[in-house]
Specification:
Length: about 260
């Protein structure tokens, strides 16, 4: 995650066990495919989190390739390190990457850019360490209004706990406008970006599991106590039951924007 999306070690464990399959797992193959990786390449994953895209990238560049995962969150990296001892895992900030210019054949960032406090500087750094002919791939969540489950959850949080808490859950969708993302990438002096809206789906075992994921392992981590969590579960089961299937599971549309830019040779 980015530098404003810090999680404790316990929250990072929860994030990896529950949130990765619910939201992030389907995107790693898509982001890696967009990077057009091949065996022997050297790849950087910025804001790698618990390593879901990093490990996928390593498989794509093997044999002979190398992958580095960088994140500012020690808890996330502790979980990531258990997934692979063949990836180089580094603690570091996206705005000051500890690599020389033109060090990587591809640079990825999956769902981290929204949380960076200095987004333009981070993008400039990603572009700097990319080799000529290399590809930058950045994925961000689509607009909140196209993500009905979380639009409903944000509204519910606002009613129950006020705008500051609701805004924490709104923040992952802050770059969801394709035109805004394109203009932002251009302002960071990347090559002409291609931004594609890609359909996705959120999947949780139940309303309770969904709420617990948000409160224990994502943007609301440590912001609501047990009593507030139980209130949120009770209200969500009433107000968000339209997303619940007959078996109790929850699904709703959860699109993303995938931006690519290729550095001139």
């Amino acid at each position: 995650m980015g530098d404003t999306g810090q999680l404790t070690s316990k929250a990072a464990e929860f994030y990896d066990e529950f949130f990765v399959p619910a939201l992030f797992g389907e995107w790693a193959p898509r982001v890696v495919a967009a990077a057009d990786l091949r065996p022997g390449m050297r790849v950087l994953d910025v804001a790698c989190g618990t390593g879901v895209a990093t490990v996928e990238a390593h498989a794509a560049v093997s044999p002979g390739g190398t992958v580095v995962g960088v994140d500012l969150n020690p808890g996330m990296l502790a979980v990531a390190r258990r997934k692979s001892d063949e990836v180089e895992w580094l603690l570091g900030a996206a705005k000051a990457l500890p690599f020389g210019s033109a060090s990587f054949d591809a640079v990825l960032s999956q769902f981290g850019l929204m949380f960076f406090s200095e987004r333009k500087a981070a993008l400039a750094e990603m572009w700097r360490v990319l080799r000529p002919g290399g590809r930058l791939v950045v994925a961000v969540w689509g607009p909140l209004e196209a993500t009905p489950g979380y639009a409903g959850m944000v509204s519910l949080l606002s009613r129950l706990f006020g705008a500051p808490i609701a805004d924490l859950l709104r923040s992952p969708y802050s770059l969801g406008d394709p035109e805004l993302l394109t203009l932002f990438l251009r302002s960071a002096e990347t090559a002409e970006p291609q931004v594609q809206s890609v359909a996705g789906e959120a999947r949780f075992p139940s309303i309770r599991a969904w709420v617990e994921c948000d409160v224990r392992g994502w943007t609301l981590a440590d912001k609501l106590g047990d009593a507030e969590l139980e209130l949120l579960v009770a209200e969500a089961e009433k107000e968000l039951d339209g997303f619940v299937a007959s078996d109790g599971s929850v699904t709703f549309d959860h699109p993303a924007l995938v931006a690519t830019a290729t550095k001139a040779s």
